[in-house]
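Subject: complex prediction, re-run

Hi both,

The earlier run crashed halfway through, so I resubmitted it with identical inputs.
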Amino acid sequence: MNKFRAKVIFTLIIISSSNLPRLVFSLRLNPHNSNSCDNKVDPQTLQSDQMTVVINGYSERRIPLLQSIAARYSASASVSTILIIWCNPSTPSQTLSELSYNLSIYSTINAPIFIIHESSQSLNSRFYPRESIDTRAVLICDDDVELDSKSINFAFNIWKSNPDRLIGFFARSHAYDLNIKSWIYTISEDKYSIILTKAMIMKSEYLWEYSCGSGTVIEELRKIVDAVKNCEDILMNFLVADKVNAGPVLVGAERVRDWGDARNEGVVGKEEREAGLSSRRRDHRKRRGECIREFHRILGRMPLRYSYGKVVNSVGEQGLCEKGGKLLFCDQQVLK
Ligand SMILES: *[C@@H]1O[C@H](CO)[C@@H](O)[C@H](O)[C@H]1NC(C)=O
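This time it finished cleanly. Structure:
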């Protein structure tokens, strides 16, 4: 059996005829009892023209940003539902009811937004195969990355033509360090093997495979994620690469703002940025490298595969043409 025992508060708010949001009911679900893991959904029954967005939230300070990110996803034509998985058990439920009330404005016009308050901080819960996920694709993301809707649609289209792969906008890499004779976590100029959960699209079956194996190696690997409170994204990359024997697909975004990137003003204090950043980065990479080594040790093989290049949203011919006496890319117009 799955060890997941989080209680979930599932609050649904709908708009009354007077246009004032009103709390209609609030029911508690226990996903362990609701048997999402026992009843594997037949993917054929899931809808495939839109995806479910699962946003992980933790920091109350970031709620205003979370609100704008959820609103943007809600307005996207590729999105059917948004689930906010709130993984901070100490947040007062009053705060989340208020947030839910605020978000109900968007839900009336666009895709509905639901908040699920987890009673544990486990990072594995962002991959739980919830019964409310009724789409073949899911977009898993953090609460600090803002994508434009054109890029969301584009990435969803890329997923449709590569439904077995992981698709995303941020990539990292594993590598073998010959000096220490060991696997490390790194950023590489020309290749990648890991898509980050800052924004990751995949088929929802992978949620089931990640969360529901018990008495198996995946359960042991999930325990490492809980122990180190990190690396759930790396584990998902291990799982998918192992299944398809191929690396992920990196897509280019038109406009993306990563508020979690410490280069953003105001996210971390200036002092913190200058004093702590490089050492925190080193620490972060070191811990992620340890995850790669542990996963590799337990699995007994290295499933991660490299991919090269990035898919961009343009199909123009890029030959050079002479137009108006100038050498230009052939799909560029000369203004006369
Ligand atoms: C809800 O919206 C109000 C008004 O914009 C704002 O003051 C409040 O902080 C919001 N609360 C939450 C939890 O989002």
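The first strand starts at residue 8 and ends at 15.

- K.
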